[in-house]
């Protein structure tokens, strides 16, 4: 017997319009998103201009808020998981590491994510909540604006965390005050640090 489900669709999250399952399979019919990824844009253009960064930031904020309002923490936000449609609008993809049921003050303490984009609490396997996604957004904004990560993902875990805690990222003069303040504000979400 095959069951059909309608999966919720949101403009900023890559939807699965149909899910099919039986006792041995789960199949998802996914939307085709033809605009590539944010990673492709950064690789092709290098630093994005302030207007582009703010455009993508605003769409990512709406998408992340939608996920969090539905108890979903993505835990692996990075440019290669941010898809773009043919008009250049954001679709958050790759939900393989999500954590569901994360409402209110609920926390987790397991490690998932990609070095360089992962919040320090997650790296240390300390309690974290949806703030881990906001940390990743701050890293993505910085990368869009500078074409580099704010903290090096190199070295062992201790070196990565020390870099995050003890080192302030360098902000190029080319960043507008508005964009610099936005990145700093998002990056302040450092629970337990």
From TrEMBL:
GO terms for cellular component: cytoplasm; nucleus. It comes from the Eukaryota. SUPFAM superfamilies: Protein kinase-like (PK-like). Residues 1-193 form the Protein kinase domain. Pfam families: Pkinase (PF00069). Coiled coil: none annotated. Keywords: ATP-binding, Kinase, Nucleotide-binding, Serine/threonine-protein kinase, Transferase. The keyword Acyltransferase does not apply. The keyword Nucleotide-binding applies. PROSITE patterns: PROTEIN_KINASE_DOM (PS50011), PROTEIN_KINASE_ST (PS00108). One of its GO terms (molecular function) is protein serine/threonine kinase activity. This is cAMP-dependent protein kinase catalytic subunit gamma-like. It comes from Xenopus laevis. The lineage of its organism: Eukaryota, Metazoa, Chordata, Craniata, Vertebrata.
